[in-house]
Write a structure and sequence with these properties.
heterodimer; A: 482 residues; alpha+beta; 6-stranded mixed barrel; 3-stranded antiparallel β-sheet; 15 strands; 45% helix; 16% strand; B: 164 residues; two-stranded antiparallel ribbon; 26% helix; globular
Chain lengths: 482, 164
């Protein structure tokens, strides 16, 4: 009988005690592995740590809020900024010799894309108003030169996997790759927008307008996958949005905003006239070709944020400096904001998790020590018999350390399965309820395998305490003892 | 005797406190912040970028001659990385500045403060918020687009290491 068989026999003899010790190791390792996976995935939940644009322009306030809201679609929008903040970034097409106006920033800006938020699909998935250029198409649906299309990550542009880009003036939509799976809204589906994100139990305020899904994006593995994109123009057709724009414009000009009528006529169906046009207060809708003609003056339009790809060099810094020293808007660099966020929030969290893992491991090792120590105390006579039959002190020491190592090994394997199992349930829950994916199904060798080896080594070291007790116990005394 | 040693120590301290900055300034004035170290030219980034140039209409001739002569030379620059596109992980391109807080946020940024660093195809470097030593081939010359100077200095990166 070799050492291994002897140890297994010992473990079987006191099965209950062995199982309970193994259970404590399993729970400890399972908890530590689950924490490790959570720590790893909490970083990747942000999915995106590089950006195809180097500035975001938005309302003055928290830069982190602006970045989280615009890129990760978390938190609420800090507010709206006038649409002319976007137009001042564009080429003013001045005649030769005419100097660029001081408030035009075209010289700093290569590409700019406005976004507007405020509504959701089913109260859960954000609806974002953008221009067709966001997907690489002009107003007529023609593809733009690649250099004029913004990357969502460096070197990566959005691709429409099925369907086509929306028309800038129709109630059409392009959805992120996860939306069909999460909501069932796929090519040809229609939907209505819910105003904001209703809290549980609150009746949703569903807008009258109906959008049709005409395109589904290829996966990006970013928050974009769970977003519904509609034409910017169609966003302003919604009654509350139109009224909001008028009120905001009045306030900006120092006037009192008109009282908002929640039953504004843009949220009720209207009969079409002889030409097939439905007339609403904000827009006219052509029932023949489905086009929208917005009545709101572009001067009062507003956007939530503008994504900017600068011309490189100092241009991003120059744009930031110019805008941030003005009174209307601010610009920030998303990479810098997120770098500070990762450093401030994720690194201490990672350290804390590491500390918890270490404590859990020590607790598991102490469990093994106590269990085997008690077992050795109860088996001193058996150990003495083994010694009397010819086993050396080293053999006894090896057997006990091996037992500790095996308990840790089996417990760790079960713990590994448990840790990943717990995260599998979490991943399913997150995917169902938040559309976020937790990567539970792969083992990170360096950390997880390394951790298990550390647990086994620690268990063997813990096993040395009872092993030394057995090693030192006098054979003769224990043989006589009853 | 003790008094004279004290006096010597005091004088030495005063000389060090005032003399060292004067030495650094004078040295920078004479050498332009360019010194030879082995086969490398060590160039002081602050000296390299401390000259006036119109940010829209500037030309290569506006760059001081001693810095224009660095075009194509293998140099060592010490400064801070600024990557506007990546929050974490490996990067392939970055901007090198002598000090992010001093160069870029206290006043209007100037294009000559930003050294455009490009890592060769197939390679990447770790972003570091510490000061770094960057070795590579320097390119000097104004590049403009859309009525604004886009770049003055560029470097093909050979090696990036934390500054010791």
């Amino acid at each position: 009988m070799n050492y291994f068989q002897l140890v297994l026999k010992q473990m079987r003899q006191r099965a209950l005690s062995t199982w309970l010790t193994m259970l404590s190791v399993t729970l400890g390792v399972g908890l530590a592995i689950a924490i490790m996976i959570l720590g790893r995935e909490s970083e990747s939940l942000f999915g995106q740590n590089d950006y195809g644009y180097d500035a975001i322009i938005g309302k003055k306030g928290s830069k982190l809020q602006l970045v989280l809201n615009t890129i990760y679609h978390l938190d609420v929008s800090p507010g709206n900024i006038p649409f002319d903040q976007y137009t001042r970034l564009l080429n003013p097409h001045l005649p030769p010799g005419v100097p660029m106006p001081a408030d035009n920033y075209y010289k700093y800006v290569k590409i700019a894309e406005p976004t507007v938020v405020g509504d959701t699909l089913n109260g859960q998935y954000r609806i974002v108003g953008v221009l067709p250029s966001f997907f690489g198409f002009d107003e007529h649906g023609n593809p733009l030169p690649p250099d004029d299309v913004m990357d969502y990550r460096p070197g990566k542009k959005l691709e429409i996997a099925s369907g086509h880009a929306f028309a800038y003036n129709k109630f059409e939509a392009i959805v992120g790759s996860e939306i069909p799976r999460l909501t069932g809204k796929t090519l040809g589906s229609t939907f209505q927008a819910t105003h904001g994100t209703p809290i549980p139990g609150e009746p949703p305020d569903i807008h009258m307008q109906v959008w049709k899904v005409v395109g589904v994006l290829a996966p990006t593995h970013t928050a974009i996958d769970r977003v519904v994109y509609i034409p910017l123009l169609s966003f302003y057709t919604i009654a509350e949005h139109g009224a909001g724009l008028i009120a905001q414009n009045a306030l900006r000009n120092g006037n009192a905003p008109d009282a908002f009528d929640p039953d504004s006529d843009s949220d009720h169906p209207h009969p079409a006239d002889a030409q097939g046009i439905q007339h609403f207060s904000n827009y006219d809708f052509n029932t023949h070709d489905g086009t929208i003609k917005l009545k709101l003056d572009p001067a009062i339009w507003a956007v939530s944020a503008i994504l900017v790809q600068s011309r490189g060099g100092d241009t991003e810094q120059a744009l930031e400096y110019n805008l941030n020293n003005g009174t209307d808007v601010m610009a920030c660099n998303p990479a810098q904001v997120m770098r500070e966020f990762f450093k401030t929030f994720l690194e201490p969290t990672r350290l804390l998790l590491l500390l918890i893992c270490s404590l859990v491991t020590v607790v598991a090792a102490v469990g093994i020590l106590v269990s085997i120590y008690n077992s050795v105390s109860a088996r001193l006579k058996e150990i003495a018999i083994i010694r009397a039959l010819g086993a050396t002190r080293t053999t006894v020491l090896t057997l006990i350390c091996l037992e500790a190592g095996l308990v840790a090994l089996f417990g760790s394997i079960l713990g590994l399965i448990l840790g990943h199992g717990v995260n599998a349930v979490g991943a399913w829950y997150m995917a169902e309820h938040y559309g976020e994916f937790l990567g539970y199904n792969y083992i990170e060798l360096v950390f997880e395998a390394g951790y298990i080896i550390a647990v086994i080594v620690l268990a063997i070291i813990a096993g040395l305490v009872p092993a030394m007790k057995a090693y030192r116990s006098p054979v003769a005394t224990n043989l006589v003892a009853t | 005797m003790i008094r004279s040693w004290r006096a010597i120590a005091l004088i030495a301290t005063v000389i060090f406190l005032f003399g060292y900055p004067i030495y650094v300034y004078t040295d920078s004035l004479i050498t332009g912040g360019i010194t030879q170290r082995g086969d490398l030219l060590v160039v002081d980034l602050k000296a390299l970028s401390s000259f006036e140039m119109d940010q829209d209409t500037g030309t290569t001739q506006d760059i001081p001659l001693r810095y224009r002569q660095l075009d194509g030379k293998r140099v060592l620059l010490i400064g801070q990385m600024w990557d506007p596109y990546t929050a974490d992980g490996k990067i392939r391109a970055f901007t090198l500045v002598y000090s992010i807080s001093n160069c870029c946020f206290n006043g209007p940024p100037k294009v000559q403060h930003f050294i455009q660093a490009v890592v060769p195809e197939g390679h990447a470097v770790d972003y570091s918020s510490d000061f770094v030593d960057v070795v590579g081939k320097l390119h000097v010359g104004v590049e403009s687009a859309e009525g604004h100077v886009q770049s003055v200095y560029r470097i093909d990166v050979e090696k990036v290491a934390k500054d010791q």
